[in-house]
Amino acid sequence: GPAHLFRLAGKCFSFVESTYKYEFCPFHNVTQHEQTFRWNAYSGILGIWHEWEIDNNTFVGMWMREGDSCETKSRQTKVHLVCGKSNKLAYVSEPSTCVYSLTFETPLVCHPHSVLVYPTLTEALRRKWDEAEQLLYDELITDQGYKKILREIFEEAGLLKATEENEVEKQSKKITPEFETVEKCSKEYKQLSEEIKKLRVLLGQHGIAYKGNSGE
């Protein structure tokens, strides 16, 4: 992400609401402490630094996921980064059960160019993005296709975590041999068929019986 935001690393910012104290430690975690004398007062982790929230090709927030368990899922928190005169945790809410929303004010995001994704990427990934822009302009890909390429770029840059679906796709790509054209596939098939014939002959010469079906 943006290098200048790493100045926040190693620092923590707190916000007290009612009997709860919330603490946000950028690039680390978000915690909640119940400040009461109840015997079962809750203190726990609302999320651990996971990935960026990117909107309109701009860093708009941080996702803190995999917090303490909550019923059947883990607690998670979205931290919205907004322009402010000083670094402070300004607001906390729980829009849905075990999903928290924090607003963090900082002068580090006040300049609109300071949170652009493009400048933080490597030259190779910028080139990939430029090519995608050109394809979109030439109407060779749809808006959906363009967004898919951008997501892949952001994942490659480590700004977003790959979804389970994408991980499975990547793994299957490693396993499955791909052929760019039908001709290449046919050529490969021919070569393998020839190889199998030779191996059958070889087995026959050594008196080894070959058992197999056409599928094999």
From TrEMBL:
Gene3D superfamilies (UniProt xref) = Mannose-6-phosphate receptor binding domain
Q: Describe its assembly.
A: Homodimer; disulfide-linked. Hexamer of two alpha (GNPTAB), two beta (GNPTAB) and two gamma (GNPTG) subunits; disulfide-linked. The alpha and/or the beta subunits of the enzyme constitute the catalytic subunits.
Q: Which InterPro entries match?
A: DMAP1-bd, Gtb1-like, Man6P_isomerase_rcpt-bd_dom_sf, MRH_dom, OS9-like_dom
Its annotated compartments are: Golgi apparatus; Secreted
What name does the UniProt record give this protein?
Answer: N-acetylglucosamine-1-phosphotransferase subunit gamma
Identify the residues that the record assigns to the MRH domain, covering every copy.
10-112
Q: What residue stretches are annotated with the DMAP1-binding domain?
A: 117-216
Q: Which GO terms describe its molecular function?
A: transferase activity
Keyword annotations: Disulfide bond, Glycoprotein, Golgi apparatus, Secreted, Signal, Transferase
Report the GO terms under cellular component.
extracellular region; Golgi apparatus
Mind telling me which Pfam families this protein's record contains? PRKCSH
Question: Its biological function?
Answer: Non-catalytic subunit of the N-acetylglucosamine-1-phosphotransferase complex, an enzyme that catalyzes the formation of mannose 6-phosphate (M6P) markers on high mannose type oligosaccharides in the Golgi apparatus. Binds and presents the high mannose glycans of the acceptor to the catalytic alpha and beta subunits (GNPTAB). Enhances the rate of N-acetylglucosamine-1-phosphate transfer to the oligosaccharides of acid hydrolase acceptors.
